[in-house]
Amino acid sequence: MRQGLHTAIIGAACLLFAGSVADAAPATLVSPTTLTNPKEAHHVHQVIALKFIGGASITRDHADQIGGPAIVYEVELWPHELELELCAAMLTGPHQRFYPLELMLKHPFTLGSVVELYIGGGPSLTLDDQGEAYIGAIASVGSFFWLTEHFGLLAEVDYAIVADHGAVNELELAAGVAWRFD
Questions:
Q1: Beta 63-78 vs 46-58: how paired, if at all?
Q2: What would the pLDDT profile of 122-144 be if each residue is shown by its tens digit?
Q3: Whole-angstrom Cα distance, residue 103 to residue 176?
Q4: What is the pTM of this model?
Q5: Largest Cα–Cα distance of the chain, in whole Å?
Q6: Cα 93 to chain center, whole Å?
Q7: How far apart are CA 71 and CA 84, in angstroms?
């Protein structure tokens, strides 16, 4: 049953991504002049990123190291103001694996054409390898460093809280690569 649930979550994320790409109208990337001149046309951007997460899961009794890969899909909802991010990860701890699925609203702070800072937060659903599901929330502060128009690096700090028969606090650092497209 838990394998079926994992497959359903991954399938839903893929369908969300495929639908967004199929519905996207052809457009050009936001140029540095568009960022400084609001009268020019703006094109909605999307981002796919792969990142590695490392951190600690802290309960009242102990702290465990966690880490693993994640895939991120982001779409701009309101130009220069609001982005929606969907993140699916596989985090391994000393005793079991966790599969968090996070939905986050982010506010970007664009500094020219290279650096984009952001702050965000939203709900999360975490599955463990026994098939148990836990709800929670996540807050994030991070940045993209765009090396080219389409390729960049990302770095972020996350705080998550998960309800698992009491609160589990997680402090995470993440780094990865990102691809931006219209």
A1: antiparallel
A2: 999 999 999 999 999 999 999 99
A3: 18
A4: 0.76
A5: 56
A6: 20
A7: 14
